[in-house]
Amino acid sequence: MKLQNMKLAQKWREYAGPKDERLETENAKIYKLGFMLLSFGMLTLLVYQIMAQQVAWVHDGAGEAFRLFANPVDAVMYAWLFIVMTVCAVLQTRKGYVDTNRFGQTEHIPTGYFLLISGITGIASALAIAAMRCIAEAQIVPIESVFWGANLETGVVFGVTIFVAVFGALCLAFFEAKQRRAKIEAELDCPDDL
Amino acid sequence: MPGQKNLRMKAARAAAGLSQSDLAEAVGVTRQTIGLIEAGGYNPTLNLCVAICKTLHVTLNDLFWDEER
């Protein structure tokens, strides 16, 4: 069965011809852009959906149990998004890097860079969450009933949480990638090759 | 379009009597890729550079080494 599969794969390669390296490079760039747009778009929608439900619950549904997702399909969809993003991060660390710039493979943890990235993410998240809560609230109650201050406070709390989570995740990924890199380098330095 | 035109590759291909399509088929890429390398719009991998050189019976220095850069 395996031999047959190999022959089939070989025949397919002969039929399809060699892959053009430039097209593969271009395709990787296009898929990267697509992945960014899709994942960040879905994340924004997820946050907005949760905020809208939570705001609606605060105003007129406090007697009922709060439901994070509208239905189980939504929950599975967003769980899948989380799995896909995690898989990408794990694959990166398995290749021994956490970023594609000069901080991607440093020996010492780039604390300043990670703090900058986490800070930008935290501040952007705080502002986006506060704005989303205000927009969601303005759609269900009169503008004078919007809890502007509370929404900003909620945004700040989420922003700080996201800042800590992103910084922690980056540090964890860095140490994991560093360990993996050491293993790859040890294999590359194999004395049998000399 | 980034990069410098690779006129030496174009000349070597013409000297070998190959069209862009012929060279592309020989090295396993599309015609546009060869066109872009000659126009300076694509930076090929070393593997592709070697394949092109072997097909045109020239060395890497002949086509891709630039003393001025």
UniProtKB/TrEMBL annotation, chain B:
Pfam families tied to this protein: HTH_3
PROSITE patterns the UniProt entry points to: HTH_CROC1
TM spans (from-to): none
Keywords of the record: DNA-binding
GO molecular function: DNA binding
SMART domains: HTH_XRE
Source species, domain of life: Bacteria
Residue span(s) of domain HTH cro/C1-type: 9-63
PANTHER family attached to this UniProt entry: TRACRIPTIONAL REGULATORY PROTEIN-RELATED-RELATED, TRANSCRIPTIONAL REGULATOR
Protein name, as recorded: Transcriptional regulator
